[in-house]
Amino acid sequence: MSEYFSKLFDTSDFPARWHCGNWSDFLGWLHILSDLATFSAYFAIPAVLFYFARKRNDFPFTSLVWLFGAFILACGTVHLVDAIIFWYPIYRIGGMMKFVMAIISWVTIITLIRYIPSIMHLPSMAATNDRLKLEIIQREQTEQRLKESEASALAASKAKSAFLANMSHEIRTPMAAMLGYADVLLDHLKDPDNRNCVLVIKQNGQHLLELINDILDLSRIEAGKLDVEIEPISLVQFVSNLHSQMCVRSQEKGLSFDVKFASEIPDRIRTDSTRLRQVLINLIGNAIKFTEKGRVQLAVYMSQTNELAFSVRDTGIGISQEQQKRLFKPFSQGDSSVTRTYGGSGLGLDISNRLTRMLGGSISIESKLGVGSTFTVTIPILSTDDSSLVKPPSFGKLDLAVNETHKIQHLACRILVVDDRRDIRHISQHFLEKAGAKVTTAENGRQGIDVAIAARDKCEPFDLVVMDIQMPIVDGMEAVAALRLEGIDWPIIALTADAMKGDRDKYLNGGCDDYLSKPIDQGKLVSIAVKYTRDISKKELNRLRTERAKKFQTTLRSETSEARQ
User: Fold this and answer.
1) pLDDT in tens, 246-257
2) Neighbour tally for 246: CB within 10 Å
3) Residue with more model confidence, 235 or 115
4) Radius of gyration of the chain (CA)
5) End-to-end Cα, the chain, rounded Å
């Protein structure tokens, strides 16, 4: 055996195959080319098998693939050796190669027999195709269910939005009449007892309205229908107005309310003043409500994290640690005794917390029973380009005797009020005529259009139109569109329940210049009338309309582009 391996590459004792027998050229080349072609095929087949075995690690019979590839490669190598022997008689290597091929062949056979039972249980191609078809059908069914669920959720959201809009209108409209007529009665009554009765009616009506607003706000937030409109504001003026407004409540209860600026602050910031005011009024209102004696203070300063902070401190009843855990949950107060003593729905803090998060900020609390509480609102500073740090003076107790915040301004103009509710028309007319305006009313959108066109044709134009949105026959937005098509460019104020996200933009983009929420506040109604009949020139009004139109076109192009993508 050792002699065999020592002469493995020795070909001196073997003649080349060309010299063995009577090989013709054709027969010799036929063998050579056939062996080479067979070797090429036998080399390509295992190459493919080995590639498959390396790529598919999840294949259950990898060893069988490798053995089968080695077997075919060994067969091909034998054919290659047979072709070489025609010139170089390596018969010993040929014998060794055939021996190796024989061993690999039997190992492959044994392995194949071992795996045959498992291979027989593999699914057939038809079964595999059926399984794939079933998976495709299930995937399509799942996608269809998802589409149906999405459509159902969208329909439910629209239904909820429509319900909120309708309920807001249906609740606020009679409330507007009740509170408005209470103001009318106050103007006519002189007897203190009678005035006190009306004041009680008005105060309870305002309390009910606050509860309605809280419920609607909570529903709008949960439905994602509440606006946050970031705009530049004067921070000092904002705090000053807030101080003036809340001083009235504090002095009614005999409490001191002051504002302290604990550090330099930006004179102008960018935020949603309406939502921030709503949060702070709720916190200050709670501080006043739960404080029997002492003081309430609003501190404004820059926090250590470079955020703007508003801290509302009181000397009230305080809140225990256990009660604090329930504070920011809807319909929850400290305990039942608090509800019985002070009233309230328990919605204010939850709404304030959500609104603060919408502004990018947070609310924290520090409190001790019997000592008082401190609620701190922090919001990120979005300074304007022309903003600078200032240290304004603090505001102390406001002298209500000289406070003319609620002084009614004088009007000298012609105003058209369009509303389907007689009581709303009467209240609006009373407030505006009391301020000096000449008022004409219309019962619906169709009548409002006719009255406006008739006044224009008589060269007796109105200086302002107050248009209710929800009306029969022709609603407010249809009436506004018709007036604009007629070339009437008078200022138009939308009178609305202000229920849904996007309503303001919808009214302004539909041709209105501003909007007023129900219930109608006498001061706000007169102020907005003064603004558009006296303070804003026609040139400035046209400029505002042009800017709004450009913004609306940009938004439409952006939405169209996103829809196409």
Assistant:
1) 887 788 788 888
2) 22
3) 235
4) 44
5) 78
Angstrom distance (rounded) from CA 351 to CA 339: 18
Q: Which two tokens stand for residue 286?
A: 């709670």
Task: Give 17's DSSP letter.
Answer: G
| Kind plus residue range of the DSSP H or E element containing 84 | helix 62-84
- Give me the numbers of helices (H) and strands (E) for the chain, helices first please: 17, 14
pTM above 0.85, yes or no: no
- Among all chains, which residue has been given the structure tokens 């305080």? 318
Q: Residue 208 half-sphere exposure, CB side, CA atoms within 13 Å?
A: 14
Q: What is the mean pLDDT of the chain?
A: 81
Helix or strand or coil: residue 191? coil
Total residues found in the chain within this entry: 565
Q: Given this model, what pLDDT does residue 529 score?
A: 93
Whether the pLDDT of residue 562 is over 80: the answer is no
Q: Check pLDDT > 60 for residue 500.
A: no
Whether residue 458 contacts residue 466, with contact meaning beta carbons closer than 8 Å, is answered with: no
Contacts of 161 (CB under 8 A, 6+ apart): 223, 225, 500
Burial of 26 (0-12, 13-18, 19+ CB in 10 A): exposed
The single-letter code of the amino acid at 248 is V
514, 528 Cβ separation under 8 angstroms: yes
**Confidence tier at 502 by pLDDT (50, 70, 90):** low
Q: List all residues 6 or more positions away from 184 whose beta carbon is below 8 Å from its beta carbon.
A: 427, 430
What are the backbone dihedrals phi and psi of residue 87, each rounded to the nearest 5 degrees, phi first?
Answer: -110, -35
Both tokens assigned to 509: 């983009």
Provide the token pair at 521: 């506040």
Q: Which residues pair with 468 in a beta bridge?
A: 495
